[in-house]
Write a structure and sequence with these properties.
By secondary structure, the protein is α/β, with parallel strands linked by helices. It has 15 helices and twelve strands. The strands form two sheets. A seven-stranded mixed β-sheet has the order 1-7-6-5-4-2-3, with helices on both faces.
Length: 403
Amino acid sequence: MVDDKIRGMGFATQCCHAGQACDPLTGAHNTPIYQTTTYAFRDVDHGAKLFSDAFTPEIGLTDGYIYTRFGNPTQNALEEKVAVLEKGEAALAFSSGMAAISSVFLLIVKPGDHILADNSLYGTARDFLIQIMQKFGAIVSFTDFSEIENVEKSIRNETKVLYFESPTNPKLKCVDIRAVVKVARNKNIKVVVDNTFMTPYFQNPLVLGADVVVHSATKYMTGHGDSISGIAIGSRLFINELRCLVHNNMGGVISPFNAWLVLRGLKTLPVRMRMHQQNAMTVAEFLKSHPAVSSVNYPGLPEHPQHDIIKSQASGFGGVLSFELKGGYDAGKKLMNSVKLCTLAVSLGDVDTLIEHPASTTHAVVPREERIAAGLTDGLVRLSVGIEDVEDIISDLKQGLEE
Ligand code: PLP
């Protein structure tokens, strides 16, 4: 369903229907995978109008397609669905979360501009800001966004973007989105939020006043670990500019097949997220009471330092948690080698449980002091809790934690 009526309907209905109508040509109930690179123009004037519209952000492509790097019906179905779910005017799909994030920065920032980002970002996003944005003349600095005074103090005349995730990875720190928006107000600063961990089911940063939302759709949106994909959501003008000025030139386009996989995944987002959260809460309670565990980071626990903040801005706590093992590095390694149901792997948001121990795996090559300064202590384990029967997840962890 693509008309405005869908905006007034419930979230689960939107997940099933938004952006998707039966194929007008064949009646196919599911959106087809439009596996085509190019499109026939009706005549020369039609082709000329499409090109002119595509490069006029105030208009954008509405009367047909040119070439799949500019847009494609399967991609567009996904974009319309996610725009509705995130309560934004428009969305643009990308080949990965990083393609979405990097493109948003490339549109907003010019040499000399300042980017202020949270000090706990997804590693590659942090690396992109340092390695690429700085290389092209942007000034980048980091601070702890969970203390709003830090953000206030770090703003400069040149600041153009405030960027953060909430909750963050892997400590599950939460940022008060409304408070950050208030700091940016009337200063021509864009607030960009990575909403990957929460998904639009639990949290809508645009409703809280953010300007742009980005997602690694690779995670919960696809949900089954079978598509690398990303999406950005914002005003129609911003998204049209992103498409014609950055996306078209950089080419980080999602394939029609991957767009279709995300579309399919999104239909079950509410049921999956409810189950992820229910299981995560049960696993968090189990870990809290386990003698081998010294602390558990899960924003759903009342003792989490930002529990009240997440409750004030989101309707749930998500499915990712982390915990600290008393036995440090060796205990983490032993747990990783002992689990049988949980998979030792990076990524998150799949239907099955993924576990990782940064110190012995993903961050093993990072010098210990650097790793610890980034919050990745020797005994820290991250769990993306799946939707399996929770007793089976717990019994796997229990046997892995045994002496
Ligand atoms: N944002 C967050 C919070 C992530 O966890 C990730 C990947 O793990 C990304 C962005 C990057 O997404 P992708 O791997 O789809 O490029």
